[in-house]
Amino acid sequence: MDISCYPTQMTPGFYASRLSRPGAVLAPMAGYSDAPMRLLAAEQGALWTVSEMISARGLVLGNEGPDLSIGRPYAGEEHRVVQLYGAEPDILAEGSRRALDWFGAAAIDLNMGCPVPKIKGKGGACLLLTPEVAYALLSAMKEAVPVDVSAKIRLGYDRVRAVEVAQGLEAAGAALITVHGRTSVQRYTGQADWEAIAQVAQAVKIPVVGSGDITDLPTLQLRQRSGVDAVMVGRGAVGNPWLFAHAAGRTHTEPDDALRAQAAMRHATLNAGWYGERRGLLQMRKVLPRYFAHRPEWRERLVQYGALDEVRRGLEQLTGTTLDPDQEYLAAPPAPGTYSESRL
Ligand SMILES: Cc1cc2nc3c(=O)[nH]c(=O)nc-3n(C[C@H](O)[C@H](O)[C@H](O)COP(=O)(O)O)c2cc1C
């Protein structure tokens, strides 16, 4: 893995430098964009990856420390943005410093899109109702850290006002804005509105990343031509890390079942290394069937495995292939690193 550019990540300009090449971004997804998924995306050529959202209050006032599993990088991790949510400038400023010091964030992103009720009133998509609060948060974060600070918004809370919000964030010093093409009240229903995303891209000078409903290569290519600076892939990348290779122009062939089995086995191995075998494989139950979405009849078996040996045997039987434990795709899992280890 190339880590030569690590020191240069500690300066503004991370997004601009990553956007100089083709590719897609791995979306922040609570419960999914963890270290194993980020590693798989990075290996396939993701422009950058974004952590699951992390509570700034938890980092600053809670018991969280550098060991926090959703913040910690894997050894050697690079090009990883840490996303924070919160609603208080001082807390977000200190949270940004800690995200940088503890987790080695390449950039810090402010969550302005989470519609989950428990986040309500504390930040997330509620900031779309009071965007002036978000502008103050963003400038406090920018003051606090010497790296790019960005925000990820939805089109609005209950009405579309993304252009106004994006312009305000730009004026507050945002280096980039990601737009998920739905309002908060829509949650995940309906279709993402890519025309509204394109209007944001036209209205600001900073780069805009578009997010919503990219699940296959034709859609990805269509959205790459929609006027945004890059596209972000979330749900469509679960069990399909090859989308990043497609976006980067590395390959346009779809993986066969043998390759899917190798990648699924690797994901399970990485999960077991990161979380421990028992917990890691429990979490794989929502992921393994996604590697074989075209084989719904396999689903019942794919959600039963409790040990890596069972995963291997099961995948071999289902796909009729042999998974050689000495193969590179089963290489050592990413050690749960610390930031300082990850810079070595
Ligand atoms: C399970 C799940 C968790 C998510 N967690 C976050 C999050 O932590 N922060 C965030 O900004 N967006 C989050 N999102 C939104 C995604 O980043 C993305 O904008 C949205 O899913 C639309 O893109 P997609 O259709 O490619 O998934 C989440 C979405 C899902 C489905």
What does it look like?
- The chain folds into 2 domains: 7-247, Alpha-Beta Barrel (TIM Barrel); 257-339, no CATH class.
- The longest helix is centred in the C-terminal third of the chain and has 19 residues, at 257-275.
- 39% of the residues lie in helices and 12% in strands.
- Strands 1, 2, 3, 4, 5, 6, 7, 8 and 9 form a 9-stranded parallel sheet that branches.
- Strand 4, helix 4 and strand 5 form a beta-alpha-beta unit.
- The protein is α/β, with parallel strands linked by helices.
- The N and C termini lie close together (12 Å).
- The protein is globular, with a radius of gyration of 19 Å.
- 52% of the residues are buried.
- The protein has helices at residues 14-18, 35-43, 56-60, 89-103, 131-144, 162-172, 194-203, 217-224, 242-247, 257-275, 277-284, 288-291, 299-302, 308-319, 339-342; strands at 24-26, 49-50, 54-55, 80-85, 107-112, 149-156, 177-183, 208-211, 230-233.
- It has 15 helices and 9 strands.
- Helix 5 runs parallel beside helix 6.
- The chain binds flavin mononucleotide.
- Flavin mononucleotide (FMN) binds at residues 27-32, 52-53, 83, 111, 113-114, 152, 180, 211-214, 233-236.
